[in-house]
Amino acid sequence: MKIVKRILLLLVVIIVVVVVYNYPKLNLLAGYSAKNTASSVFVANRTLAFTDSTDNNFSPVNLATDKVDFVNKFATSSAFGLLTRKAIYREGLGSVLTISEEDETASYLVPRRLKTDNVTPFPYGNAAQKDTVFSTINYNKLASAVNKNFDKTNKTRAVVVLYKDQIISEKYADGFHKESKLLGWSMTKSVMSTVFGVLQHQGKINVQDKAPIKSWQNDDRKNITIHNLLQMNSGLEWDENYDEISDATKMLFLDRDMTKMQESKPLVGKPNATFNYSSGTTNLLSGILRNQFKTHQEYLDFWYTNFIDKIGMNSMLLEADLSGNYVGSSYSWATARDWSKFGLLYLHNGNWNGEQLFTKDWVDYATTPTPTSNGTYGAQFWLNSEKQFKDVPKNMYFADGYQGQRVYVLPNQEMVIVRFGLSNFDENEFLKGILESINP
Question: Which residues contact 189 (CB under 8 A, 6 or more apart)?
């Protein structure tokens, strides 16, 4: 009996040690699942069953047990019954993980939106587009190229192809349609960058100025410019690792104010000479944007009234952290059609149906390679300047999100291509196939 008791005691000790060691990971696991569930159900209007069987069905997130309260609009996720996280839905601000019970009843401001235009035809409104058949497009080749991306391996959910301002191809996976909201993940970084472009065009900011961060003024970080931050080239320390506990995961699933973590990091390189992709940098930039306005309400409104709703991306919803900052690194939802409008705004060099929201100079700036990125990155946009995609023009650039969310802008072809899914895919072949459908 003594031997049995010792063995049982040893097993208990081992279990306790394993739980204690992995407890922080359980916090992040449950946090990811709760946040993703709440947003999928309350922002994208999907069912819990669909969310668990698709968006949350990868390891280790599929180990969490998810529940939804439709009356009070929140989701909970439990990691083996050892730890539970809750994500609440706030109208106008999306879903957010709670940290304390007070978060569930705290008051919050809601962004004011512009009226939706359901009269003007797409793309400048949301009414049906005019039927146009282009003699320069081989529609059979185009359909074949798009259809290839909808096999089980690619897990594609939506593709929209615009040519000369018109949709020439549009396809959705089962369960999705033109009104389905889709999460852009890090494509939100490109959205955030564009707000700087709008402010610069309005003469309200200069991205070449030093970053207005008070805590940096007594050390070498005072030399970091907004430009360095936009190019992910500040020299600041940051760990962007989603497979382990890292700066990125702690920020997204544990922080009340996501604009602060990057601010506290030391220099590990030199500004303008040390490229390091960082979601923390983007959220720091969101905080800088907030400080450009006299009130929190103006900050919340501006992204929509001076940009997003101006171009008819009325389906878009930007999610905010508990402190009311837009999570510019990761959380924006919109239909595939509305995401294509975002690409079209850049294709037209900031001009939207006659109104200049930003200039071609901003497009040139956003697509200028960061000095130490090997030609792959601009100001929160990804580039093809070194022909990473060998069969695609060098001047193609794109917004890039986790699991293959993309908005490609191809100036030479007057094309915008949008792709959403749940896995990475052969981007070169996908784009090559579409480009080959254009007859010379």
Answer: 279, 282, 328, 329, 380, 399
